[in-house]
Request: fold
Amino acid sequence: QKAASLLLSNITRCHLSHKDLVPGSSYVARVRARPVRASGFSGQYSEWSTEVLWETPEGGLQPRNLRCLFNGADRLTCSWEVKKAIVTSVLFGLFFRATPASAEEECSPVHEKALPHVPYVVQSCEIPVSNSSSQSQYHVSARAKTEEKLIEAYKNIKVLPPANVSVTVTENQEYELRWIKHTLQYNFITQRYQVEYWQNNQYEKVSLRKCRS
Reply:
């Protein structure tokens, strides 16, 4: 997973707000340093520090302010609010029963709109109404969804990284990189490689090439 990154100057502490973290989750952080270019010096990043781990407390996962409005004809529009930090990692759905004896159904699609100046987003969904009599009652709930996936092993192979990377100068003054590939159990599975390179005093990659074994 991609890490969130903060760039700080000439300080030795950093505050992470609870509104930017997902409740009931495990987090890892590490720090590295480099000379400030404005000082007239330049150089590379240090190695990463040792990692620090912590757990955020449970709570705040439940949606709030669930409300539904009927248009008087054929549609029941429901909306609820969830924390912005949560929606990137937790899926929420709207579930309903047209009658107490009906099977529960999931409303789709769910729309999303950010709320200004508050750490919440509004999610909404429209339920089609087939019986709009005064006796009709809908049981509605908004809650976190359990995501299920079918994982096919042969489509999710992650090989070990190449080893013993080396570079030599060829006769025509080109630079040849070589490495030893990780051998898979099945020889008919070929591997593709991505090569990144950059100037030694620059952190950003300036070019990349893809190779196939």
